[in-house]
Amino acid sequence: MALHTVVRGVGHFVPEQVVTNDDLARLMDTSDEWIRERTGIQERRFVQNVTPASELGVHAAKLAIEQAGVSPTAVDYVIAATLSPDYYFPGIGTLLQHKLGLQHVPALDVRAQCSGLVYGLAVADSLIRAGAAKTLLLVCAEVQSIVLDFSTSGRDTAVLFGDGAGALVLAAEEGQSLPGPGNGVRGVIDSLLGSDGSGAELLCVEAPGSGTPGFLSQEVVNSAKWRPRMDGRQVFKHAVTRMGDTAEAILQRNGVGAEDIALLIPHQANLRINEAVRERLGLRPEQVFNNIERYGNTTAATIPICMSEAVEQGRLKQGDLVLTLAFGAGFTWGANLLRW
Ligand code: UT7
């Protein structure tokens, strides 16, 4: 029997501080109405004081490990996904290894921004099926509030993002047959990833970086180059097309119909993007899980936070066919098809 990658545990953690659209409207020229209509966001969570991404990741990871019912010492691989690491380098994978008291196992950082979960899960699945990992911790954590511009000149990005973390414990299991599409196998069935670097500058933090003279020069500090920059309309168009195409392709190549999907868990960048994808795929509203109204866009963390809440709410049960779907900076995009 072949090895499969099963989600054993899932957890999420968001900071306590709730920031509403009205709170932001007191800092910049925006409104609750504009933000809700254009994005679906009503509020988001921000860390207080200096709380690094690894800290949120540790909380989420502990919950996932607890739910999985495994000992932290059983974890034999760490994959972390973040665009907001504690340090420029190293990534947060090693920090998680240390803070969680794990063995000296490999710790890998995936830099795929909003596609962090789908990329991380695809890599994890390859490692597990190849026999390189048996109990893998995948942690997606972001602290983005610290880099946003809360004056009117930053409103096109500042209203979108939030802080939070989600984590999965993935375990190797011998294939277990269940009736239904996707060969009836429990766990990850397939992943489909893509990228197009020609879109890198449409959504990025340009500096500091090795492409900038002086790396952290006064010019960089004075400019807005260290804050996220996005051409929202362009990114929106690419997201709708890529997410729709990717979902159709992965369903088709696995012989899965829209009606077979128990839950589509898309990245939470914009409710309008997710509605457009849902309509294109012909899914009913209850087949899609969204929580952007409460957390905004937590980048790599959106999908695992959704998964964790879907389990809590009884909307995700063992045996359900799940499709994840993401698009983000890079550009990167992808989907995972799995049986929960
Ligand atoms: O997670 C990674 C992937 N990210 C995404 O997928 C995000 C994709 N893009 C989007 O979700 C949308 O493009 C946004 C929500 C970012 C913007 O929505 P939009 O409908 O594309 O608005 P827009 O950028 O075309 O701006 C419309 C107007 C502009 O004013 P004018 O030029 O029409 O006078 C903006 O200046 O809205 C203005 N505006 C705002 N007004 C109030 C931009 N941001 C704000 C704001 N509050 N926060």
Helix content: 25-40%
Largest sheet: 5 strands, mixed
| Ligand catalogue | oxa(dethia)-CoA
- Flag low-confidence runs: none
Spell out the CATH superfamily of the largest domain: Thiolase/Chalcone synthase
Distance between the termini: 19 Å
The tally of domains stands at 2
Number of DSSP strand runs: 13
* Topology as a string of helices (H) and strands (E): EEHHEHEHEHEHEEEHEHEHHHEE
CATH topology of the largest domain: Peroxisomal Thiolase, Chain A, domain 1
Rg on CA atoms, Å:
19 Å
Query: If helices are DSSP runs of H or I spanning 4 or more residues, what is the number of helices?
Result: 11
How much strand content do the residues show?
15-25%
The mean pLDDT is 96
Named at the architecture level, the CATH assignment of the largest domain is 3-Layer(aba) Sandwich
In what order do the strands lie side by side in the largest sheet? 1-7-6-4-5
